[in-house]
Amino acid sequence: MVDKNERRIITATLADIYLQQGYLEKAIEIYEKLSKNEPDNDFYRKRCAALKKELKEKQKPTIFKKIMTKKIW
């Protein structure tokens, strides 16, 4: 599938390549577009949801970071 606005090929394979390279946000973007274009495709929706959950978990501050940023005086 070609995104007419961006003129690039949008496929699950491209999303997986982004994942392998560490570009989680790009992979999510691709799966969102695929889900929009194929709303009946459960795989795309589930994969997108799982990646969003993973991104959210990665963005959570660790306990150590919370302690270090808390003013104690």
Question: What report would you give on this structure?
Answer:
With about 70 residues, the chain is mostly helical. The protein has one domain (about 1-70). Helix content is about 65%, strand content about 5%. It contains four helices and two strands. The chain has helices at about 10-20, 25-35, 40-60, 65-70, and strands at about 1-5, 10. Strands 1-2 form a two-stranded antiparallel ribbon. A hairpin with a 4-residue loop joins strand 1 and strand 2 (about 10). The N and C termini lie far apart (about 55 Å).
Spatial order of the strands forming the largest sheet: 1-2
Tally of alpha and pi helices:
4
CA-based gyration radius? 17 Å
Let me know the number of strands. 2
Highlighted features:
73 residues, mainly alpha, two-stranded antiparallel ribbon, 4 helices, 5% strand
Brief sketch in words of this structure:
The chain is mainly alpha-helical and 73 residues long.
Write the layout of secondary structure elements.
Elements: E1 2-3, E2 8-9, H1 12-20, H2 24-37, H3 42-59, H4 63-69
Antiparallel strand pairs: 1-2
Helix pairs in contact: 1-2, 2-3
